[in-house]
Amino acid sequence: MTDVAAMGLDLDRDHALHLLRELIRIRRFEERCVELYSAAAIRGFMHLYIGEEAVAVGVMQALTADDAVVATYREHGHALVRGLPATVVMAEMYGKLEGASRGRGGSMHIFDAGRRFYGGNAIVGGGLPVAAGLALADRMQGKERVTACFFGEGAVAEGEFHETMNLAALWRLPALFCCENNLYAMGTALRRSESETNLAYKAASYRMPAWAVDGMDVVAIEDAARRAVTEIRAGGGPVFLELRTYRFRAHSMYDPERYRTKEEVEAWRERDPLTLFPRYLDDAGLLAAGDVDGIEAEVKAEIDAAVAFAEAGALEPVEDLTRFVYSERPA
Amino acid sequence: MKTTYREAMREAMRDALRRDARVFLMGEDVGRYGGCFAVSLGLLEEFGSERIRDTPLSESAFVGAGIGAALGGMRPIVEIMTVNFSLLALDQIVNNAATLLHMSGGQLNVPLVIRMTTGAGRQLAAQHSHSLEGWYAHVPGLRVVAPATLEDARGMLWTAICDPDPVLIFEHGSLYNLEGDLAENAGPTDLDRAAIRRTGSDLTLISYGGTLGKAQDAANELAGRGIEAEVIDLRTLRPLDAGTILTSVSRTHRAVIVDEGWRTGSLSAEISARITEGAFYDLDAPVARVCSAEVPMPYAKHLEDAALPQVPSVVEAALGLLEAA
């Protein structure tokens, strides 16, 4: 765990508890999703972020409401930290009208235009060019905004990754590229699919600042993201962060996990951000008795309310099936 | 005013760039080179490199960037040099541009215009001669247009830019040198309706883009034989203006569809099906189609000519329908 004092960071108690709460919110939200999936309330593909929460929580601290976020199909956590109410995220999983995308997206396609949350892209690498375009629009309109784009390490093998790295660096676009390296593209280990497994090198070859960060250490991630965003806002062009993390559960809801050993998973679980961070806070004297229990109780109430909201939600009338294929125009 | 299709398209872009500061053009060689087909020649000098953006040869990245820029408040015109290269951007066009509005429950419309050259006839062989606009017309969420006249080359772009959703403009490569008169005050044209370019009562020739001229030539030849053919220019390939097609066929009772795409699974197949569904009892003969031969386009001129719809093959198909009656 990062030595905050040594980094010169001022991690006050309020912020520490905020980070902890966000980590717990995502974890408990997704644990509930698993139960609901087993109960067939949620269907389709559902990709859990469990184990990787520190990445979204840490990076998002560096963004303002004006910035944009582009994420992947593993985006429940990003949506929650970005400020989407748990109610509308859950309702989306239920396929309800009240869901973030009116039930037309599901787990993989959560959007919120007002919060500049551009989803929810389920084609590996497909969000990268879009993020470059959002950043280009900001640049051309003289807006000092940043677009943060999250993608897995599997995307690094896609042509769209390389095309976008080049374009973003060439045009010095205000984009933060956050590579969530959980070591497996579905079941394919990084070492089995990349000739160069140090992913920051790839981005650096496009002449953009790029570095690797411990993706289980929420404080280190926040610190790296803040430094990156400061550089980007100053007009320095894009920055690439490789966030080294691990997915504790299956790629989607179920998989046989033949591609990795139980020992490996257990070793990574030792570095669970939900264990590391509270322990660190305790050691640093930032945690009071009852803090964690209090957060857990609040989060449980929030998720209970989200489930109740989703259960009570309406189904979009089938007559509206073909709405939103094209924009609705005045008759 | 004498002009060409190329100049009309350029004037449309110049007009759009002047009218709306959010409009910009990006693509391969659109700036310093002046455009592979010289459509954007001179625009860099007038509007500068911020708004006339040369891109790397990264179709997926710059088409996706067009989508992102459109989401971010701009009104991009993305030029893909040819439809053949658009296959490298298929993910962005089909998985993002076409889906985002629906997938987001109506939140994210994509006001993007993509222009590209299409078609064969210039001995460019198999990888530079595709007519894949029918593929794109298959996809809900996209609007697909094919300007075949000077008026539409001048007029469709602004309407497309004003459209809140993605519009693909297919420019047949053989049309750029098309010359003719265009009104000084020529302006925006609609993207909704097919146009009847020639009226006739004996049969309907249905065409678009690069095949319109061939259909018109065939109609002239048929007129010499006392046969009056109506010629429809589809203009918009998605959504199809089925009303104009059905009304015409119900009156003429015969239809020949001229489509440079391959016959199997083509736009012509869709139109034929619509006629069968909507005007079956008005038909005096089966619907006929003149399409490209089902081969990758060959280079040698005689082979390419044989592979494409030609005036004699359209005339022959039309005569076949009349004899069948």
Can you describe this structure in just a few lines?
The complex is a heterodimer of chains A (331) and B (325). With 331 residues, chain A is of the alpha/beta class. Helices cover 44% and strands 11% of the residues of chain A.
What attributes does this structure have?
heterodimer; A: 331 residues; alpha/beta; Rossmann fold; 6-stranded parallel sheet; 12 helices; 8 strands; 44% helix; B: 325 residues; 2 domains; 7-stranded mixed sheet; 5-stranded mixed sheet
Structural features, described:
- The complex is a heterodimer of chains A (331) and B (325).
- Chain A has 331 residues and is of the alpha/beta class.
- Helix content of chain A is 44%, strand content 11%.
- Chain A has helices at 13-38, 53-60, 76-82, 86-93, 127-140, 159-170, 190-193, 199-204, 218-236, 262-269, 273-283, 291-312; strands spanning 68-72, 117-121, 147-152, 175-181, 184-185, 188-189, 210-214, 239-244.
- In chain A, helix 1 (13-38) packs across helix 3, helix 1 (13-38) runs antiparallel to helix 11 (273-283) and helix 2 (53-60) packs parallel to helix 3 (76-82).
- Chain A is globular, with a radius of gyration of 20 Å.
- Chain B has 325 residues and is an alpha/beta fold.
- Chain B contains 13 helices and 14 strands.
- Chain B has helices at residues 5-19, 43-47, 59-71, 83-86, 90-97, 100-103, 133-137, 150-162, 212-224, 242-252, 267-279, 301-307, 311-324; strands at 2-4, 23-27, 52-54, 75-82, 113-118, 143-145, 167-172, 179-181, 195-198, 203-207, 229-233, 236-238, 255-262, 288-292.
- In chain B, helix 1 (5-19) runs parallel beside helix 8, helix 3 runs parallel beside helix 5 (90-97) and helix 9 (212-224) packs across helix 13.
- The longest helix of chain B has 15 residues, at 5-19.
